[in-house]
User: Fold this.
Amino acid sequence: MQLYKVSLFAQGAAVEVLTSGTNTSIRGLSVVNDNVIWVSGSKGTVGRSSNGGKTWKWMIVKGFENKEFRDIEAFDASTAIIMAVSEPAYILKTIDGGESWKIVYENKDKGMFLDAMEFWNEKAGIVIGDPINGRFFISRTFDGGNSWQDIPFDKRPVADSGEACFAASGTNIRVLDRDEAVFVSGGVKSRLFIRDKTTPLPIIQGQETTGANSIAVWDKLKMKGGKRMIVVGGDFKADSSRSQNCCFTNDGGQTWETPHTPPHGYRSCVEYFSKTDVFACGLNGVDYSNDGGKNWKWISKESFHVVRASKLGAAIYFAGEKGKIGKIVWR
Assistant:
């Protein structure tokens, strides 16, 4: 498989738009395999393709027509979990391809705003939300999302003043290894969180619109230590600024480097395809790095919010405003 990926990248990557025009802003994207793709977005919208994005089934979740589904986790063509972000926040699950949805979590707490979900496998998952009373909200599931248990308040990570998370692409929290997850914050302060340990990030910060938006982890289920991670962000009000919009580590977060050639603007999502091949997307386009994040090439000016690689294949998909969905093609 690795030889296959390398030979494709040698040809050069480009972005092909598959569909657009649906009245939704997509920030949730889950690619089960090269054929089965799920997306979620604004106005209660969920989309599903079973043929690699050639055709789509679009659905509005009844009773949630005004909700923002900012993240989605899919396990097959029938099973998916969606996250509605704010007051009240909901998590819903389908086991019949989206024909019906069951509410599996509801939270009416004042200030509740969910940012992203992540799953280790088909049973264990985690959801993170903005700080409430000075601590980041976290809830866990151990039964495939059928039920959720909130982490006790005194066990939740402490947030600094003006620090929060961006619900930009469902990727500010990721699996780190078989036991841990890692997340990044933004705003006045931008940090990396691994359980009780926090690390300042060399990402632009200091304003509500600045900071880390997304983190990607390579070799996430293998041994601890020495992990490659990449963080992207910037200032979403200055979408063409290349100042302090990316950093990476090759030693599990002990030290961080910034690119020689950074991405070409604010980036809301980053995704590894291989140990060295990485994609990032944002409001003004898509960047690709073939050296682990040291240098980035602007390969498309198509705007996207989120990029995800196939869990069980070799495809890379994008999604964004007005129902726009794209994929990487090789030239």
About this structure: Helices lie at 2-9. The chain is about 0% helix and 45% strand.
